[in-house]
């Protein structure tokens, strides 16, 4: 059996125009950037070109160096593994003799600047700082390592090139702008995607009021097969600009569509009002109303300042952005809408962190096929409680459960293993269940 | 279990037919997987259910027994399967499973290696994530378990996506033919550190490993081994707290003064006893939630690591 399955679906190398996630100094700073020859990155007071990152493997590590033509990013070649340092357990040294003042370092700022101008590498500066530190030798190897790391971050900052995935995009937003995604933590997002049975060739109904993170995460799992149908109340679709961060191919973008709730539920209404009306004529009226989103989306594409500017590097020019803009969020094709009306959506996934969940659920649940699973996210418990209760009373669903995911990270080091001192205490609530046939 | 191609999907009417795998739902904590067979019956505490009554009904229907008892017939999903499969080993549950799929960055088309297969609980979700063009190669050194897992994947219709191999992964590593081919690897083994060098060979550049271990000592040893050619080594614990939702009648506190003028103290007490909550302002029932008092407290630690990129 052939094992070579997915070479171009899942590219491992960056290309010109792709979106990447830059992890600066081991998670100290995370930002999204678009790789174009002209795009630049600012670290501290230095600005460097992102050009060297084009055509590299995701996962590559770079270090900021200063050359004749100014600062530049240079690939880091990991020399074997110097990791075993900091692992000694029974150490005689402790910190009782250390005095924390600023006299321990004999190199001055001016001297360091001069070294830089002469082209001394960041690593060499770090070594010089260590050699000129009066206290370095007295430190435990653990704090020596900490000192080295601190200096390295300052004088030889590192940039790790990451591929944006639902996971890293969610984590980045959660860390930087949690309110924009309604405090949806990555473990809650994982649970939503599983419980809503997202897979290729499904027809997923999505209500995404968290800027497109949910839409993107669903589309990523479907690989351009089946449909991600975003629905909305009223005439304006909810913005889904986070979808741009995912580097979706055109095939995937084409499968992300939008349709107003009124249009999706049209048949049920029409039928009850005028049975026997042929379907096509039912739709003509809807079709003449202007497609609400196309204009909206283009605006978002050309003005990155709109919503996510802080999270994107500023350098990429708006023009290059517009021409490569993904066409995600087009109008749902008639044939698809027709088939959804006949067989129903295969699942529902929702994140409406500032809305009353029940008023939406009672409208969208009937659009699902029987036995379809659903998963609903909320940042507050009460709306989900009301929703669950009403679903039970109305005998609309079974297997109902409200869950609150809990996530704890550990530091694992020889003799120093323990949970992280800081943790996120809240990542939202998830209501799940299965729609049943009530007749 | 999965909509494997678009042609089939569109004609799929989601009605129960002969030979289908259905999940019979009695209660959220009582479900069973059954193959529909026209001549067969299901007997449980609610009575006798004829499969022939089920055929042609849409999935999600309520069906009745001879005695008037009822159950629901659901279409299987990996989540439901995890709740009904036969436990031949300890298995992974939904919170861990969903987190693993997300963190391993598995998308359609990926090649995933897994060991041990165990009861195939995780493999089922892996298969859903790589479908339709990817593949899961899962290995267990226990011949019987491997065979039962294979039967299960046949039953759930996943056998074109999952291949089960019999192999001692700790002793021999993964087969050489997968060298540099795996997008991600998952280990649920007693001594995962023994398999880690092989995992390093199997993964594509920047590929991700996850190792699940119940004990912290296992994690400690695995992490030590990982440090030589993996980066982004992170260990998590993920749990779910579930909530009970109830309609509750709360007695509201009534100030003494108003009521002491109406009735002498002894009478008042009597009336309160008779009528439950206050007479004048009976508070309407309120829907409330509280965490369930019992929960899974520990499953295992999930350690993730990314293969270092040879620059
Ligand atoms: C806890 S179970 C895995 C459960 C699985 N993750 C699930 O969700 O169903 C562990 C499995 O590893 C297998 N195993 C133990 N040592 C092994 C080895 N050296 N090579 C291959 N499989 C092994 C056992 O036979 C057992 O079935």
UniProtKB/TrEMBL annotation, chain A:
GO terms for cellular component: nucleus; tRNA (m1A) methyltransferase complex. Belongs to the TRM6/GCD10 family. It comes from the Eukaryota. Residues 268-295 are annotated as: Disordered. It comes from Daucus carota subsp. sativus (Carrot). Transmembrane segments: none annotated. This is tRNA (adenine(58)-N(1))-methyltransferase non-catalytic subunit TRM6. Keywords: Nucleus, tRNA processing. It holds the Pfam family Gcd10p.
UniProtKB/TrEMBL annotation, chain B:
It is found in: Nucleus. Residues 69-306 form the tRNA (adenine(58)-N(1))-methyltransferase catalytic subunit TRM61 C-terminal domain. Coiled coil: none annotated. One of its GO terms (cellular component) is nucleus. S-adenosyl-L-methionine binds at residues 119-122, 140, 168, 188. Keywords: Methyltransferase, Nucleus, S-adenosyl-L-methionine, Transferase, tRNA processing. Residues 253-292 are annotated as: Disordered. It catalyses: adenosine(58) in tRNA + S-adenosyl-L-methionine = N(1)-methyladenosine(58) in tRNA + S-adenosyl-L-homocysteine + H(+). Its main location: nucleus. Its EC number is 2.1.1.220. It comes from the Eukaryota. The keyword Cell cycle does not apply. One of its GO terms (molecular function) is tRNA (adenine(58)-N1)-methyltransferase activity. One of its GO terms (biological process) is tRNA methylation. It holds the Pfam family GCD14. Belongs to the class I-like SAM-binding methyltransferase superfamily. TRM61 family. This is tRNA (adenine(58)-N(1))-methyltransferase. It comes from Daucus carota subsp. sativus.
